[in-house]
Design goal:
Blueprint (H helix, E strand, L loop, with lengths): L3 H39 L8 E5 L6 H8 L12 H8 L5 E9 L3 E8 L4 E5 L2 E5 L5 E5 L25 H12 L8 E7 L2 E6 L4 E5 L4 H14 L7 E3 L7 E3 L1
Parallel strand pairs: 1-3, 9-10
Antiparallel strand pairs: 2-3, 4-5, 5-6, 7-8, 8-9, 10-11
């Protein structure tokens, strides 16, 4: 026959185990409720992107940046990917790079590095502005007087955000190196039989050849225009910038 005291101890132990299980289940239930409440909280408007700080976007309107970034309506910060936002912004024509950071609880910071316009070229009835890589930044009605003109040679000009063919993009790199003081003296940067050619405002041509030593070639051209007797000269061959050749 079982000792009553042993039976009583067994009953007490069983009751204690039952109480521990109930406490454990209750604790788990509380943690689940708290986790669910916390998840709901971070997805609420309290932690939404209600403050958007943008720098470097002079060429892109703020509403466009906010829309492309997907920040309209103040979405929760927990749902945002800074890398994905940056990639979307870098597809905008004027944006070279974008960096995005989140500052809890309600702020998104966007820093944009804009592209640099270096040349203009005919595009239909108007003009297209491009950067040194040949990316089209925008279409404008009239030629920006501060930018050199690049000839497309009949190649189609893509809409803003697109890129020029490599041969025309090489001319944009030439325009990027051209000193500002020489822009009025060059009517167009073109491709000719000898490579890259500058059509000068005085109807002469300056033959550059390729894109090597461009700065030296522009220095040589400026020196020739200022110091040489150009009577009867039609071509200035600058393919070897240290030894310009004047051709009639």
């Amino acid at each position: 026959m079982t000792d009553p005291r042993i039976h009583e101890r067994r009953v007490l132990v069983a009751r204690e185990k039952g109480r521990r299980r109930r406490r454990l289940l209750t604790g788990v239930a509380v943690l689940v409720a708290l986790a669910g409440g916390g998840l709901a909280l971070v997805h609420s408007s309290l932690f939404g992107a209600r403050h958007v700080e943008i720098t470097g976007s002079a060429h892109v309107a703020r509403p466009e940046v906010v829309a492309v970034a997907g920040l309209e309506g103040a979405p929760p910060l927990v749902d945002l990917s800074p890398a994905a936002i940056a990639r979307r912004l870098e597809r905008l024509p004027w944006v070279e790079t974008a960096s995005v950071s989140l500052s809890w609880p309600t702020t998104v910071r966007i820093a944009i590095v804009p592209r640099t316009p270096v040349a203009a070229l005919r595009a239909g009835a108007g003009w297209a502005v491009v950067d040194p890589t040949g990316r089209v930044l925008e279409d404008v009605a009239s030629r920006p007087s501060s930018l050199p003109v690049v000839s497309t040679g009949g190649a189609a000009v893509p809409p803003p955000g697109g890129s020029l063919p490599p041969s025309v993009a090489a001319l944009a790199r030439v325009a990027a190196v051209m000193p500002e003081s020489m822009v009025p003296e060059v009517s167009a940067v073109t491709l000719g039989r000898g490579g890259i050619v500058l059509q000068l405002a005085n109807r002469m041509r300056a033959l550059l050849g390729n894109t090597s030593l461009l700065q030296d070639k522009f220095v040589a051209l400026k020196t020739v225009l200022v110091r040489a007797d150009l009577s009867g000269i039609s071509v200035i061959d600058l393919r070897v910038p240290s030894a310009p050749v004047l051709l009639r």
